[in-house]
Each structure stands twice: as C-alpha cells, then as structure tokens.
C-alpha cells in the first residue's frame, strides 16, 4: 500500500502568478495552469478540467522529469566549477602579466643603469684627459709668467741705471727669450681645450619616448566573452519565445472569445433571418389572400355587369353596382 498523501509546502508554486489565487484548473488547449479567475478567460476552451478530476501523472514520467532536473542541476554545477576555474586562471594570468611587466621594467632600468655607468666612465676619462691638458697649459703659462716676472724687474733697472753696453747686451738676451716665450705662447694659444659636454640619445630611445601608442598592448581572449554573449542571447531568446508564447496564448483566447461572440451573433442573425423569412412568408400569404379576394370581387362585379347588360341593355344602375 502506498503512503498517505501529505500537504507539502509548495513555496507559493501552487498560486497563480497573475492573480495570486490558488491553482485549481488546467487548460489542456493552452497547457496552462489556471485559477478561478483564469477560467473566465479560458471559458471558450474545450479542455479545461478541474485538477482534482485529472488522472495523476504516472510515476515514470514524474521520475523522468526529476532526472532531467538533476541533469540540469549537474550542468549548472559544472558551469559554476568552470567559472571558478576561469576566475583562478584569470587571477593567475593577471599575476603573470604583472611579473612580465616587472621583468620588462627591471630590464629597462638595468639597461639604463648600464648606459649611465658607461656614460660616467666616459665622462671621467674625458675629464682626466682634459684635466691633463689644462694642467700642461697651466704649467706652461705659469712658467712663461715666471720668466717674464724675472725679466721685467731687471729690464726696468737696466733701462734706468744701466750703461749703453748693458742695455745692448740685455736687449739681445731678452730678445732671444722673448722669441722663445712667444713660441710657447703661440703653441698654447693654438692648443684649445674643450670643456663643454652634451648628452644625446639614440633614435630608438627617442622613438620610444615620443611614441603615441602605449608601450604595452593587452591581448584578451574573446572566447569567454563570446560564450557569455551567446549564453545571454540564448536566455534573451528563450525569454522572448516565452513572451511570444504567452502573447500567442492570449491572442488565441481573444480569437476564441471573438469566435464565440461571432457564433452568438451568427445565431442571432440566423434567428433574425428566420423571423424575417417568416414575416415575409406571412406577408406573401396575406398579399396572396388579398389578391384572391380582389380577383373574386372583380369577377363578381364583372358577372353583375354582364347580367345587367343582358337584362337592361340601355339602362345603367350605378347604385346596384
């Protein structure tokens, strides 16, 4: 023996979504569960039965529905697992991208530091060479200055107090020294020393610094987005199909109601036509009777005239007529 049926909490599934009333009927024509208010809309349908009077669903079909729901739930769980896996892969990809960015940045910094170190080495070498040249020039100029400083005091003393012979001899000696000093001065004058340093960058670096497009470009896998869009489109399509189905059901109900109204009007028109036909028939019979009566009266009058004519040919009695 089967266990006794018990009332299960249906979570308001046994209530009409449109009217909030208890579902008591089922319209087979539109495959729709109905409450007492819905039955008024479906009053023209041929197969609207009270649920109590409908045979119970057989167990295999009920079990098949349950198995189908379990299968769908399993697929939903698989979707959830795929989403979690995709989320983990996304986080891992983002972490890898961050690491790659850091590596590129470190490589660029290392390249810049190496170039900077090389630049400082070249600057120090250039500074040492220039400093050496400046030291030589400074030493030569100092020696020239020292020689001149030694000559000038003696030159002034001899010029003021020396004899003619001393002046002549000193003049010749200083002339030779002057030529030597001027030669050193000319050599130092022509030995220019560059002290200005400028920095230039490679064309590749300038192009990198002035490029309009970003140096990083992300490559997104659009497959997931396309799947999501397809899934959303399927959901929207199902919603539109459900809306269209509901609208079709409402249209069918309206058409059924209109057909019922047209049937009632056709019946009224038929009755009215029958009444008109009956009235017309009655009128035709009445006209026929009046016509027959009129013909009889005319025949009677004609007979009377003939009789009068035969008995009194020259006398007319209008009143007798």
Task: Pick out its properties.
three-stranded antiparallel sheet; 3% strand; 321 residues; zinc-finger; Double Stranded RNA Binding Domain; mainly alpha; metal-binding; disordered C terminus; 3 strands
Question: What does this molecule look like?
Answer:
- With 321 residues, the chain is mostly helical.
- Among the domains are: 13-55, Double Stranded RNA Binding Domain (2-Layer Sandwich), CATH 3.30.160; 71-197; 276-306.
- The protein has helices spanning 36-41, 59-161, 164-190, 203-210, 223-311; strands spanning 25-27, 32-34, 48-50.
- The protein has a 3-stranded antiparallel beta sheet.
- The chain is elongated and about 215 Å long.
Secondary-structure blueprint of this entry?
Blueprint: E1 25-27, E2 32-34, H1 36-41, E3 48-50, H2 59-161, H3 164-190, H4 203-210, H5 223-311
Antiparallel strand pairs: 1-2, 1-3
Helix pairs in contact: 2-3
Taking the sheet with the most strands, its summary is: 3 strands, antiparallel
Average pLDDT reading: 78
Q: Structural class from helices and strands?
A: mainly alpha
Query: What is the count of β-strands?
Result: 3
Helix content: over 70%
Radius of gyration: 64 Å
Query: Beta-strand percentage?
Result: under 5%
Order of helices and strands: EEHEHHHH
Count of helical segments?
5
Q: Order the strands across the largest sheet as they lie in space.
A: 2-1-3
The parts where pLDDT drops under 50 for at least 5 residues are 314-321
Shape: elongated
Q: Give the end-to-end Cα distance, rounded to a whole number of Å.
A: 106 Å
Organism: Dreissena polymorpha
Keywords: Coiled coil, Metal-binding, Zinc, Zinc-finger
Protein name: B box-type domain-containing protein
GO molecular function: zinc ion binding
